[in-house]
Specification:
- By secondary structure, the chain is mostly helical.
- The protein contains 18 helices and 6 strands.
- It has one domain.
């Protein structure tokens, strides 16, 4: 009976995914359909490998565990080498490619720091919120709603943050040449990955979190490699690397528009990109489509693994932490140009130094967030 339930649930998910891909391809374009498929694969990978950021940083800062950090170093190193040829050429297959690039400045540091605190209170980052929601977490639904609100709130405050000191973007690939920059960064990350090996005392069972699905063990290493490859696929199909939180902000803005509040009156939404996105259907936005695909992919993985379970009632402290954390996640992500994926992973893989500055500030925020968790009745 359980096997039938798993098979039936997986079949419904696959049917829904296939129908969505067909509709996107027919009414929006084949690239949107392909991006939705890539996103489903991202959701499956995130869920099956247990690849997260907030839990990895808490394990590092509280217990000295480095397995999550090693996996992130491996993922970014592989993506750096794969991104370099496309970013160096600038175009192929008839469309342009661009990296995840943002200016260095106080705005970035403050936003990433806020985001880091939000990670520990809200219970996840951008990708973590989506794949955990797909796995049945009621808490993540609360965090996600607050995440969207926080991002939209930050967009209304945009002039305040852009007035702070900024030094502009610094991309190593453009300064040093793509081959030397990518090679140097990949070598440095490989050294970090190898060096941390001696500190990695995590038992095998925590690394091989969910084995046997599709016939091979889903380790953090498996997740790191697949996420790098899928980010490359995103770059090839959309022209830019994987991003998440822009979709949350856009959905909130669309809802505000539906309720009669015109975001277009604010500076952030008067930019040509944002204005165009606001006027177009949500299905035409690659980030929104991929966010939905990640949830569906994680849901499918949870069903197949027999772990799909909607969590029960939540304590007041957990609800409060989810709301406060979600608002900080959304606000911080918007003013720091993304989250662990859009700013850190994709930014660093694009050899943009803002990705590494973002990581440092967010890690400091995680340290503060861990110490605030007990105030909401959360363990450390």
């Amino acid at each position: 009976m359980a096997a039938m339930s798993k098979a039936g649930g997986a079949g419904v998910s696959a049917l829904f995914a296939g129908g969505t891909i067909a509709l996107l391809t027919l009414y929006v374009g084949w690239r949107q359909g392909a991006l939705f498929l890539v996103a489903c694969c991202l959701g499956i990978t995130l869920y099956q490998s247990g690849f997260g950021f907030s839990g990895a940083y808490r394990a590092l800062l509280v217990r000295g565990r480095v397995d999550g950090l090693r996996a992130q170093a491996l993922m970014i190193g592989i993506a750096t080498l794969m991104f370099a040829p496309l970013l160096w050429s600038g175009e192929a297959l008839g469309w342009d490619f661009h990296g995840a690039v943002a200016p260095l400045g106080l705005q970035l540091v403050i936003g990433a720091f806020l985001f880091g605190i939000g990670m520990q209170l809200g219970g996840g980052c951008g990708s973590g919120t989506l794949f955990t929601l797909g796995g049945g977490s009621a808490r993540m639904a609360i965090t996600l709603v607050a995440f969207c609100v926080g991002g939209f709130w930050a967009s209304l405050d945009w002039p305040i943050w852009t007035s702070l000191p900024s030094f502009g973007p610094l991309v190593l690939g453009e300064r040093m040449g793509w081959l030397p920059a990518a090679g140097l960064q990949a070598l440095a990350l490989g050294s970090v990955w190898w060096g941390l090996r001696t500190l990695d005392h995590a038992p095998t069972r925590t690394l091989e979190t969910k084995q046997g699905w599709l016939g091979f063990p889903w380790t953090l290493t498996t997740g790191a490699i697949l996420l790098a490859v899928l980010n490359l696929a995103t770059l090839v199909l959309s022209g830019g690397p994987w991003s998440i939180t822009w979709g949350f902000t856009l959905v909130a803005a669309k809802l505000a528009l539906t309720l009669g509040w015109d975001p277009g009156a604010h500076v952030f939404w008067q930019d040509s990109f944002q204005s165009s996105a606001l006027s177009m259907p949500l299905a035409s936005d690659p980030v929104v489509v991929m966010d939905a695909g990640i949830v569906l992919g994680a849901m499918t993985a949870a069903i197949v693994a027999g772990r799909m379970k909607i969590t029960g009632p939540l304590r007041r402290g957990v609800v409060a932490a989810s709301i406060v954390g979600g608002l900080m996640l959304g606000y911080g992500a918007r003013i720091s140009f993304g989250c662990n994926v859009g700013a850190f992973f994709s930014g660093a893989a694009s050899t943009s130094l803002h990705g590494w500055v973002w990581f440092g500030a967010a890690l400091a925020g995680n340290w503060v967030g861990i110490r605030l968790r007990p105030q909401f009745g959360l363990d450390t």
